[in-house]
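From the shared-data thread, chain only:
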Amino acid sequence: MTVHTVSQTPRRGEAFRYESFAVDAERGVLTCRYSLDGRAFNERVSLAPGPRWDTPAAWAAARLVFLLAGVSYYKTAAPPLIDLGETALTPGEHAFLREFYLQGLGEYAYRNALDLTDLRIEGPPAPESARSHPNAAPISGGGGPRALVPFGGGIDSIVTLEHVRRRADVALFVVNRPGDRFEAIERPAAAAGLPVVRAGREIDPQLLRSAESGFLNGHVPVTGILSAIAVLAAVLCDRDAVVMSNEWSASAPTLVHDGRPVNHQYSKSASFEAAFREVLAAGPAGLPEYFSALRDRTELWIAEEFAGLEKYHGTFRSCNRAFHLDSKRRLKHWCGQCDKCCFIDLILAPFMPAGALRAVFAADGGGGEPLSDPALAPKFRTLLGSGTKPFECVGEVSECRAAAVLAARRADRADCALLAELAAEVAGRPDAPTDGEIAAMRRPVGENFVPAGYAFGPR
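Structure, as tokens:
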């Protein structure tokens, strides 16, 4: 295992403090305030204004955004103490929040050579029933299920929306910086033809100057923050479920360090989903349901489903370089070189015609299909288990190996020398996947939290 080290011990602050949050219903703005050793941070989330901002359910959802968004500012120095100020937590919330910090910042701690296990979260206690509002009006649902699907433009959320739209009234949910738009999200959203609920998330500009301010930097569990914002959005637009697209492999750790799992995708994992559901259920009546439609589905299963959704093949894009914060550096095509491009190519190769998949990566001046570039062999081998798995939202090693085996069997892939080489290496391993194991990955695996009304039927 490769151990990440730094040249000196990073400076850690004294205390991170939760100050307060405030709601402006007329403007549709939630403001969250934090501080660290006297330095103030403000984050704003904007959604459509309206009377539902003044309901107990909206207050409870805004409070959850306040609790989870704090992690982005805590990481600037990662002090051993989090002071909740006047924010009272139930024992269940306290345990959930501490795990969110420890597990959600696992990659951050690993890369910065930090040990966060001494983290203390201190604040006034609240009894488990303290946040119960028995008179809160439940979400009406308008006579039938009304779902909000957070949408990132990738194959997972596309498969989810096409499944859910057959069972509920659906709106897509997108979070951007105010006024910003990502073409990689907007194009497949337009192809879906569904309404889009938008939130603006404005992080404190000090975070964009981390280097000059001497802040520590690194990955945070952003899906957890966006989940809380989605719950607030669902309350405000009278929707009764937030339906995520987090699959089975998101629960697998990226690596294990000092005996502890480090998972780049922690806030997409089953453990986060279960814990967040418990917090929501313990809160006031009227909060929406929260679950992932794909929890028991592998990336292999999802790729096979997506292969049949041809109307999206010319619009979707999961390339990392499509989401650069600086719009001038944001690519309008697949780069064909990053780990995410390699993974998407590999997982779709068993199910899409070779010519169609090559056209995806070549569209709009794209960098070409990764499997056509022998120089990318090391990145594919990493996906297949040779070396440390990349800190990216990519599938589990077993899924990637199964994809290589299946893709190499396609007649239209006979001329792909790199794929043949990779598949031969997989077949030569003592733990090579059997046909039975590959078949099992194309069926549901494990447990899920999907309500009966949203369950998948037979393929």
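The first strand starts at residue 16 and ends at 24.
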